[in-house]
Amino acid sequence: MGVVNVTPDSFSDGGLFLDPDRAAAHARRLVEEGADILDIGGESTRPGAAVVSLDEERRRVLPVLEQLAGGNVPVSVDTRKPALMREAIAAGASMVNDITALSSPESLDAVRRSQAAVCLMHMQGEPGTMQANPTYRDVVREVRDFLAARIEAAEAAGIARDRIVADPGFGFGKTAEHNLELLSSLAEFRALGVAVLAGLSRKATLGRIAGRDRPEERVHASVAAALIAAQNGAQILRVHDVAATRDALAVWNAVKSQP
Ligand code: HH2
């Protein structure tokens, strides 16, 4: 899954693709590099990010979506706003990526009324404050139990299990230690019975480990993290650097297919 951020303030590429034509061109490049899904977002959810109005988010996302929908790659929309979920689905999005795991009845309803897939992500707190003091007794169990409950709620609302993807939400109300524990235990999330998505790309935890302050210098660390996530059972990798991630996966697949 290639990330397309149509925002002025995303943590790693804010402002680069605010113009719809540039965003769409970037998305097409990600497809050429081997992306199987595009994830378009119009609101940064980095720690401390400002909230974006529905009108503004709509102005950012829909023109890009309109250029990409109907192409040969499914398009996901990264939003927590039910109105935009509905409008994006009507404009051709085939997946909703919701960092609040369809926690509002309106968003459950927006997805239920469609054929779209949905990614349910775990987050402790809100982007504005989530990194202040994330606390868990057992992060793996708590995140997994939350996702199991959200899958159950989605199914009860009429969203079939084969449309659902679960994501532990790396960096969303988690310390570096929490993120590493989740990554090393990711295989346990397979028991949820849905596809698992992992989004570690360029995140601060990787910068801390590799000693890289600038997100764009975290490509190598991101590729390592994506490969570990795949080896631990993630079926969808949400990444900024598609070509580099593809190469790593190709090496792993070549080794796996040895007799
Ligand atoms: N991470 C980000 C945004 N959306 N969605 C899912 N399902 N999982 C993630 O890990 C995830 C996500 C943050 O990355 P990015 O979009 O590059 O940054 P920003 O939120 O600053 O736009």
Compile the SSE list and pairings.
Elements: E1 2-5, H1 20-32, E2 38-41, H2 54-68, E3 75-78, H3 82-90, E4 95-98, H4 105-112, E5 117-121, H5 139-156, E6 164-167, H6 176-184, E7 195-198, H7 204-210, H8 219-231, E8 236-237, H9 242-256
Helix pairs in contact: 1-2, 2-3, 3-4, 6-7, 8-9
How would you characterize the overall build of this protein?
This protein has helices at residues 20-32, 54-68, 82-90, 105-112, 139-156, 176-184, 204-210, 219-231, 242-256, and strands at 2-5, 38-41, 75-78, 95-98, 117-121, 164-167, 195-198, 236-237. With 259 residues, the chain is an alpha/beta fold. The protein has one domain (74-256): Dihydropteroate synthase-like (TIM Barrel), CATH 3.20.20. It has an 8-stranded parallel beta sheet, covered by helices on one side. Helix 3 packs parallel to helix 4 and helix 6 (176-184) crosses helix 7 (204-210). The chain is globular, with a radius of gyration of 17 Å. It binds 6-hydroxymethylpterin-diphosphate. 6-hydroxymethylpterin-diphosphate (HH2) binds at residues 3, 5, 7, 10-12, 41, 44-46, 78, 97, 99, 119, 121, 167, 169-170, 197, 199, 238.
Can you summarize this structure?
It is built from 9 helices and 8 strands. With 259 residues, it is of the alpha/beta class. The chain has an 8-stranded parallel sheet with strand order 1-2-3-4-5-6-7-8, with helices on one face.
